[in-house]
Fold this sequence. Notes:
This is Helix-turn-helix domain-containing protein. The chain has one domain (3-103): Orthogonal Bundle (Arc Repressor Mutant, subunit A). The protein is 55% helix and 12% strand. It contains six helices and three strands. It is globular and about 45 Å long.
Amino acid sequence: MTERDTARTLPHPEPARIRLDAVLHALSDPMRLSIVRDLAASEAELACSHFVLPVTKSTTTHHFRVLRESGVLRQTYRGTAKMNTLRRQDLEALFPGLLTSILTAAEAEATRLSE
Length: 115
């Protein structure tokens, strides 16, 4: 790993440090929940540029940071792109069924509100 690669490594909490209150806080914001729903629907890593949010770039960066620091997603650099994946296995091991329940409830709410 080069010095430049080290400078581009983002901090993520170890599974033992992921807290339920931080995860719930991260998922309580509609923009962040939208990001998580998109990631959950994709089998692939998604670049930050994939997400079109109706907020400024700095606010988008804030939302991704909250999700990363809470342990909901993992971010890695691929060239100049910051790639995102859900930490499904970590979250399922720590809080069985939580992510699935939240995503199911979010889908039901989206359906209800669109009627």
